[in-house]
Protein 1
Amino acid sequence: MTSGWTGFARRFSHNSAAMFGLVTIVLIAMISILANVIFPGDPLSIAGAPFIWPGTESAFPLGTDVLGRDILTGIVHGSRVSLIVGLTATLFAVLLGMTLGALAGYFGGWVDAAIMRLVELFQTMPSLIFTIVVMVSLTPSLPTIVLAIGLTSWPQVARLVRVEVLKLREAEFILAAEVIGGSNTRIILTHLFPNVASIVVVTASIIAAHAILLEAAISFLGLGDPNMISWGSMIGSGKEALRSAWYMAALPGVAIFVTVLSLSALGNGLNDAVHPHGAHK
Amino acid sequence: MSAAGASSGFRLLGYLTRRLIHVIPTMLLIVGVNFFLLKMAPGDVVDVLTGEAGGATPEVAAMLRQQFGLDQPIWLQFMKYMGNLLTLNLGYSVGYNDFVTPIIFERIPASLLLMGASILIAVIIGVLLGVIAAARRGTWVDNVINIMAVWGFAMPLFWLALMLIVLFSLTLRWFPASGMYNVYQNLHGWAYVRDVAAHMVLPVFSLAVYYLAIFSRITRSAMIEVSGQDFIRFARAKGLSPQRITIRHVLRNALLPIVTITGLQLGAMLGGSVVIETIFAWPGMGRLAFDAIFRRDLNLLLGILFISSFLVIIANIVTDLVYAWLDPRIELK
């Protein structure tokens, strides 16, 4: 087997679907960063007449919605919410999941029992319904939705990391680190985490895709931050005009679809590159 | 024979008792965490009631809070809630003027019908597509099924539902897009069944697509993995027909991961049914949750979370039983 990083990069770059995912995600990220430069102004303000169909007026290439807000501006600015939620909720879930999973696997005993009880708690509650409870209880804002989605996503990471740590726990290099007097924190941070990182990265891309879909569903139901435009809330307001102007709900949905599709292509590519023997399955 | 049957019956009973005892702390934690979470919510049911009535004096509001027990310290309210829970009493819904438990139980059959039909459709079509993809591995058929599965994963189901409504309901007028049956006609017998079935087509398909995608992928990889194993080679050497091998030997083993995934995904499906039932005005528990949010009926919302978590637990236990039944090597612990 080729040594770690170069073999991984070679396998990944030869996977056309994965490269497509990576390029698209980078493009979407650039668009969302430059949103204020490309389309300055408030995406929630009225830009023209309502109900302008896409392709009929050059000033509004993707048309306007029920209130006369520009749909292209909305989609460009809405990418921010999706990407911020996808990124931060995943980061939160990964950090929490890695920490608790490593603690459970490393210490075992009552620590393990307590953490696994928490895992069970969050895996029993239907994640969308729990997210709704959190959104209703706290103020509907971006940090709240990140917190809620992060809380429902970390158990996946924790279970994975726990199993890996259990396998590594008795490995010689861990025992050696213990013998030379390495502290528990040091062993977990410098010896265990690097060994589980590759699996966690694969899971992270799946969690990010899931987080974007969950945020869209929450905003669609009208439970998101009312002061920020998001793809889900655009579909929600487009729903009211489904009969006469279906494009209002259709277009932001395409944006979600492309983003999630790219993320899962990226995840599959990472998975195949990390586990080369499973790739041919 | 009968003695063995009785003893395995006892074993099953013992197994179920152990499982149910194990989940009690989890259920208590779920209720506890969410009870205190919802107490942090701005505005209570009295605010909604007085708001609907066009405002009320502070005295009236205070009187109402006293009546609902909302003036008591939170820990006392919690103890009371837990006490009621012992008798399966999930409190009172002011918005619906009834106890929460019967309101939810009245909605469960509609939700189970929707989810059950979705799982059935997803398993049948998903397994079929997976078997076809595995049999035609590497051909264009396999590629098309693969692309469909990847698209199914990435599509927001509420968006798919809206697009299906635009095409099949608003444009083609094939299927209704709202409700569970025609409220204007008083249908009975087969006409009623046909009417409900027509109302089910779009919501069931919207909910099923994601699981259909998962099932087709899992079936495909399980089929390919199983068909390379020794006992399949042996069956082929025995001269069994390819169809018989596929159905009796390969498929039976490929079904195991499908059972696991179905059990694991029930929670996600309950969440999905909130969105789908809201869009299609389906009179189930998900639609009830949506209504509860906008009426600030927090007791009802907590009850729905409790009952749906309990359904997930039941589904996990049933999954393990089915798994043990499909694969006799697995022992129930």
Note: Residues 71-107 of chain A form the longest helix (37 residues).
Protein 2
Amino acid sequence: MENLGSLALLLAFCLGVYAFLGSVVGGWKRKPFLVLSAQRAVYGTWFLLTVASALLVQALLTSDFRLGYVAAHSNRDMPTLYKFAAWWGGQEGSLLFWSWLLSSYSAVVVFTNRRKHRGMMPFVTAVLMATQVFFLILNAFVVSPFQVLAVGREVTAVPDGNGLNPLLQYWAMAIHPPFLYLGYVGFVVPFAFAMGSLITRQPGDAWIHTTRRWTIVTWMFQSIGILLGAGWAYAVLGWGGYWGWDPVENASLLPWITATAFLHSVMMQEKKGMMKVWNMVLVSLTFWLCIFGTFLTRSGVVSSVHAFAQSPIGKYFVSFLAIVAAFTIYVILDRLDYLKSESRLESVVSRESSFLFNNLILLASCFAVLWGTLFPVISEAVTGEKISVDAPFFNRVNVPVGLFLLFLTGVAPLLAWRRTSVDGLRRNFLWPAAGAVALMIGLAAAGVRHFYALICFGLCLFVAWTIAAEFIKGARAIRARSGQNLIASMVELTHRNTRRYGGYLVHMGIVLMFVGFAGSAFNKDRTIEVNIGDSFKLASYELTIKDLREGDNPNYSWHHAVVGISKGGSSLGVLEPERRFYKSSRQGTSEVAIRRRLNEDLYLNFAGMNDSGSKAVIQAYVFPLVSWIWIGFWVLLFGTLVCLVPNKVRLQYARTEVVGVSETYANVEN
Amino acid sequence: MKTYGKFVALIVVIVGTLVWLAVGGINQTKTYYKTIGELREMGNGALGKRLRVAGDVESGSIVRTGREVAFTLHQEDVRLKVVYDGAEPLPDTFRDGAQALADGRMGTDGVFRASKIQAKCASKYEAKPGQKAPAAKQAGV
Amino acid sequence: MIVTAAVLITLGVILFTLGVRRQDLPEPALASPTAHLEERKAAIYENLRDLQFEYRVGKLSDDDYQQSKLVLQKELAGVVAEIDRIAGVPAAPSAPLPKPASSPTPAAVATAAPASSRCPNCGASFPQPMKFCGECGSPMTEGA
């Protein structure tokens, strides 16, 4: 079977090259037969990659331990879900998964646009296929998942595999990589359209309209992926945090930041015809960072001390990244005239400039994260000493950045396009600002002394207030005409402009998340060695160890604690943290126990037994407000989905006509 | 042009603030990657600097006393005594023979005081013939 | 078995890719030379509608609203003229586009304009006399 898989990958590579060349030549010389044939090659590539993936998944499910990949990432006792998830559990498989996703996206793009964008599509296909070919080179020639274990020239099988890293044997982690990859890979599509439009100098912003949904869906997948990762870190890793500024985490955050900037600044282009160069740069940068993120995740260039030279795929990625950068820079510079802005900035206090600052801040934060992540590599190249920076660096830069962004989130949607007068500012911001200041004074009086947390809570109220005011004011205006009740009016309002009001909901989700982030300023923790019957205190909780058990099953052995919790004398039930030791990978994991409440989480981690084995080491944490991060995530997800609902068609343009003194003034009937 | 002047001024202020924060952040938290051999050569120059040292955990050297964990890192023949007293639990992968990264400072007594330990364990099949080196890092952690 | 499957897959894919017949080619799409301008026009209409709604909701001051509206209307007129030019319609015999400097500022209008340019229903004011209010559509007959 592995021969068939290798053959499929090899054929897919050939077809990919053919699709790329056919599209370029066909598009350039205007040969419709060649273009169509290249499009069919795209479907063919998808088919072959599906065959290859199916063969790998089958090998995983049937535990075919002759394959090196299966032996390294699966074992017999793993549940079927995780055997399937092993498809993306290791380097070779996850690169195949990447390839397969990309080919699926390409096939969908080619199919849905088969009658549209005649001039631009061959080049869109070419960009997609160039990326595809790069990944197929890795799949077929560099890190093939179909390599068999061999002793000398004999193919051998091992009796049982290593198993998937037990830390990854958790539901959120099983689906975290696919979502992240859906996001990573998805950004190839807007990039391909942007490049296609740029290469063929399409008039207008057709690429933006075509890729609007793609971009939002992709962004949504990225957000889900990042949040699943954070949720997994919180619930599984047992160090009690959700974000550690690890290089791999950063790698997923970087394209998300630029994608967010792109989603905002693209509105400027749609509405005002401005920032065209900037949007090209952002969409290219996002694509670049997606590839870069895959590289960072896969090659371990930063995480270990001198891993760069060891990684077999590092140099391929570096070359590809260099080619992409050179190509996009050349194309953008060569077609600067085509990207001329149609209007200009008029005032510092305007929607336009708030978009500009939002972009500036996002990019600056992206750059800071990138810089921090790559600091070891950069410093080694410059000074010869490998120097790394730590979480405090990222926090120091990104906390103020985040707060400023939060501020803009509240302010920007209320600023008028072009310019806003002082009167306009007063109308919109007087009460929210007063409320925020009052809250900050109140909290400070109540004993909250943490500076950033205070600011954050104030801003959260400010933003939430302005968003709520937007909904209520809009709904009132509709109610005044239609006579519906306020809730129905709000739904109507949202339905009329789903992107705008869905966007507000996303902002609301971000606000709730910031409430959760601010809560981390008040975390408490305690590590203690205990035995049955011992009790200790943390914050207002009293914890008593009721039982310690241990046991064994084919996959892992475990230690288990039953901890009774009470507060002020009244019992709140028990928490049962567990410690597991996975046999085949010889690795231990923690199953933390969390009592999730809206105001604070109580989090218990069974860190292990002490040396003599007589006492259990328990770590207890209290995390205030952390649940709001996950609640905010659901709100964000809902808002994104709202953005994807098509606008309710209102009075169409048929009824609008230009009246007045011929062309001097155009009025709109609404 | 006056508007553009304002923009430029604002942008300079924002970028300037960020650069200031970033530079401060780097100076505050920068950690030098050193091999154990390099650390020996630095002598007293290593005192007071934040350091990250890599090496293999010597088998049987892990000793726990209360919250402190003492062990020895070795790289080829050079050895380094390390005492870990951080708040976080040691990673699950930390055990005899694992490759470990210790973050911390050098003590005057020649013992390395680690505040953070990262560890990576050797895979069972690493040395099998006919197979390339395993992935450096597991899926998207 | 595997050899057969391999041969079948290879042949199938190659035939599918290269076997493009004339009737498989999609119909050539109708390309409109003004499509991108129509898009632009739609975008400006959208902007105008948003502006109007924000004004009605009370987010904008009168001053900001009038100025922005004027700019958008001018932009729209420009796009419409461009569409006509490309479509080959001779430019409508009309007054040339007013230069920004010569257009009356709304502030001046608000003070100098007669009562007829202010809507009695919603209070919106207009730089020129109108029969019906451009905001709410109610008749503005008092002053006429």
Note: Chains B and C do not touch (no CB pair under 8 Å).
